[in-house]
Request: fold
Amino acid sequence: MEKYMAIITAACAVLALVFALLTAKRVMNFSEGTDLMKKISQSIRKGANAFLKRQYKIVLIFFGVMFVVLGAMAAFGLVTPYVPFAFLTGGFFSALSGFVGMKIATASNARTANACRESLNRGLRVAFSAGSVMGFTVVGLGLLDISVWFILLKFVFKLNATEISGAMLTFGMGASSMALFARVGGGIFTKAADVGADLVGKVEAGIPEDDPRNPAVIADNVGDNVGDVAGMGADLYESYVGSVISACALGVAAFAGNIKGMALPMILAALGVVCSIFGTFLVRTKEGANQRQLLRALSRGTNFSAIVIALAAFPLVWFVLGKEHWTVYFAVLAGLVAGVLIGQATEHYTSDSYKPTQHLADTSETGTATIVIGGLSVGMLSTLIPVIVVAVCILVAYFVSGGANNASMGLYGIALAAVGMLSTLGITLATDAYGPVADNAGGIAQMAGLEEKVRERTDALDSLGNTTAATGKGFAIGSAALTALALMVSYIDKIKSIEGGAQKIANLSVTNPTVLVGLFVGACLPFVFAALTMNSVGRAAQSVVREVRRQFREITGLMDGKADPDYATCVDLCTKASLREMIIPTLVAIAAPIAVGLILGCTGVVGMLAGATISGFLLAVFMSNSGGAWDNAKKYIESGTHGGKGSECHKAAVVGDTVGDPFKDTSGPSINILIKLLSMVSIVFAALVVNFSIL
Amino acid sequence: MEKYMAIITAACAVLALVFALLTAKRVMNFSEGTDLMKKISQSIRKGANAFLKRQYKIVLIFFGVMFVVLGAMAAFGLVTPYVPFAFLTGGFFSALSGFVGMKIATASNARTANACRESLNRGLRVAFSAGSVMGFTVVGLGLLDISVWFILLKFVFKLNATEISGAMLTFGMGASSMALFARVGGGIFTKAADVGADLVGKVEAGIPEDDPRNPAVIADNVGDNVGDVAGMGADLYESYVGSVISACALGVAAFAGNIKGMALPMILAALGVVCSIFGTFLVRTKEGANQRQLLRALSRGTNFSAIVIALAAFPLVWFVLGKEHWTVYFAVLAGLVAGVLIGQATEHYTSDSYKPTQHLADTSETGTATIVIGGLSVGMLSTLIPVIVVAVCILVAYFVSGGANNASMGLYGIALAAVGMLSTLGITLATDAYGPVADNAGGIAQMAGLEEKVRERTDALDSLGNTTAATGKGFAIGSAALTALALMVSYIDKIKSIEGGAQKIANLSVTNPTVLVGLFVGACLPFVFAALTMNSVGRAAQSVVREVRRQFREITGLMDGKADPDYATCVDLCTKASLREMIIPTLVAIAAPIAVGLILGCTGVVGMLAGATISGFLLAVFMSNSGGAWDNAKKYIESGTHGGKGSECHKAAVVGDTVGDPFKDTSGPSINILIKLLSMVSIVFAALVVNFSIL
Reply:
């Protein structure tokens, strides 16, 4: 079994990477358009490259220090010798996923704009292909990391299943650390540049969005690539790998060391890659298609993949786990369905086709304060459906997997639901990642002074992207909660496997004061983390505002278009500010579980993990949806309601949108990573806590 | 023992009520000032009375229905026959606390304004006396309810300690239901009127605050009384009674039915009344005192009471529990200290004497969006210290009470910490409740056209009130969390006492999926509740905005002061809107635990209670402190920084303040009640859940 499994998984990893490579080649065959377009795209590319290079330098120091720390721990027998290396590869592949995504995105933004000069359909093809490159790179690298390590540990080092799954959890920690750096750093960059460009350019100077006279305009476009693309790539790599390895770990526990518990999530993920590739071929439409037809084309691809995996998972579960466990299939299915439902709920609350966002636009009639209050309450109210969906998914996954008689099987079911939810990540990420490409293409069209209809087409692509991104967010956020729970259970198993650990973790009742206190502290962490990242965006944005104001004031002829602004300084400023600001939040995420463990002991850590997962899930949904609703309420007003662009209502909506920016693009998505990183760190430092905790 | 206890408690209840009565008489001897002042005060009184009368009518229907439901349950043996009656008395006394508070507040607003014509000190005396009436009415009625029921159940119906404490928990549910109606209804009224008056009056018409030409000005002042006074009175009655009866219930459990576990919290509360009365005598200062001296006078009173109770509690614990349990004293002390620390943290984050609020004012330089983001992140960050304080308090209270060897004793310690925290409520509430009186006095001074220095003095009193209110909030919020935890434990005990309940609640591990799902659902409830109440404020405020705009448009000569506005219509509108809007949130709070119980079973309910307590605590701190920081950042700018009143920075700060209004005065404080009401409802419907739950 293990040989087939390793071969299938590795083969699918290679397949995904080859597919990504071929797609990338196809994209590169398109023309970048006029010289000006090339030049603009070049500037964006340069800025994004410079940011990543400097970010990786800082991250390298962090990884170096952690490598030494883990090495020292290995020397004292607190972790296995594979841990430091696994940690590094996880971080490396996560970074690589972001890097490749950024490369292809910055290579295809001008190409998309140019393709849009011909037709909307052609633009979609280029942008969606770029998204596919990123999607399949992420899943390909993820599966590669998993399968290569598996082969190494199993066939070279001859470890048993428990040891293998234990070591594999470590590269999850590497991936999560890298993802958090990427999301937070990129998220601060993109929003600082965005807010800075908007506040001074649009509001004070009164020039349109993406106007070449705005000194922060290149930084703004760089931000889309380093935040929404590189950040998202690293993030989803982490989610994908995290869900698979946590399911592997629980599978080993559920089947008492038998490899089949590990085989299912790995082959399921591999199968998902194949289904996703087939799905991408369905994303095409006839020339001259309208926006609705394009959306249908995208949905056809994702729906097809989801349906095929839903069908194929049934014989897979039957074959891998044996017919006495065939009902586990419904756990996988529950995960898939839950992902779709959370996505639809997200769309309901944030799309201007539905009442919540339309009502939110109405509240702009009574001013800025009411639309801010309205957006906050839309976000808070929007937590209800996702919570119910996740709750039902947990119960279904647990009980269909036989949790009533065997808790380990039930918990394994919960982990498999997360894998099911992310199994078609290749294509869902493709539909998600093409959004920022289209956004950038729009910027280039504007700056290069292309005809109005090109901008209209890129806007159409962009708005299409918002709808598909909502679904993507549903999968990301739902899988984060389920994966974090699975990791919490892995932590408990890990503690039990350490000498003297079992009795220390015996009482996990919510009435145990250490669990209770852990719950409080854990639930507080996402709040503190969100506050830190919002403050970072605020500080970075203020420095951009000052710089842009300075340039408008000091560069003569800038407003008349006679002199060029100094784009590079703004990019540099954003880079420095965001890299400086990303460090504290990430260190908090790593230090907190160690500190809590050393003070409260293992039961406190479990409480902390549960508390952080629950409050993090709520806060992430709340912040993402508030931000999305404000964004689309603004767009709804811009489409001509409530007085349209420039009206008082529009001004109020712009404030709402600006408040929403760090909500939905910095703090909200970072929390998804935070809750998993907390678990990963706890697992890696488990032996330390068992041996040295106070309580 | 039980006789002494009953006599001491009843005697102190009477003492508190007599002291309140004498103080009220003293207040009434002051003059109401000019005829115009009397007329204005009369209008406010009329509006507040009308609101309460209509509110009580609606609440009466609710209580009638619940009485029948509980009666039916009693007939089927699902609750004891005392339950329906205990439920009614809890509601009645809670309502009475709010009513008396409102009566004295509306009787003393003009008197305070008039006293301020003479001196600041005289104004303080009247306002503080009014606050004292309310404070001692609340604690007096609370102790009366507790002691009379105790005497009845013990000496007339001859019940044992377990049965008594069980029945007493029921009047907690009555009190909490009433408190939620009062807080939500009053909170919506006050903020709808406030927002309506500000948005149209200050922003659109450009007239100052409390200008008699503003049609919503009377409604605004009525709002202070029905929200900040009547709402707060009912709320704190509930907190006070809740903390004592939950400690009684856990005391009975800890001492295996021995009455001494119940005696301690009751006598401790009674002793606190005496200390508080002594404290009030220290609140006086020489004529011509400045603001700092006045603050010192107030602090002297509260500090004295706190120190005396801290000293007196030691022999009390020794005597009541016996010397083998003397360390329980430190649990009481931990509660007292935690309350003070949370209050200080609140002040740090929300007072303009400290950096967070000053920095928040700075963010107004870059516009509305940045101050909104800044306020949200101040609030989120401000959760950290209270969480750590509560965490340490829980651990200390648990372990000093012997929780390591006997969990019941440890949990009893946590409940006693809440009682310790609220033991000096008589005087802390007095310093808290005088704020709205001073606020109203300022309104009357403005409307009656009194000299500038009167308004200055009432403003000084008001701002003094903000500082003391911060401390009061710390006590309210900290005790809510501890009491809710104690009630959760009481729920578990209650389930165990029901036939077939013990095995149903055996597995309370956080890895039990029903507990886990309960945690998710529970944590979601405060978010949904906050969203509902914010929406209610928004809708009610919009109707006020439309009415005020209509009056400005249709009543000729209104702006020139030649015609009177129609105050009554605005009051009526606020009344109708707030009463309509208070129903859904309250029903959600009552229906949720029953629904969760019937679906997920008892373990799900425990998860729900823990989740709601934790997320509710965080959300309440976040929302209250964000609101407080915006409010004071605005005041800081008004004091002359960042361009002062009328500047762009000030306009941005006004938006922040308006967003903060429902945060700090409607949603935030309501959540405190919500988390306790959820537990109370769960306890009352425990037998139903044990017998009829699905899982």
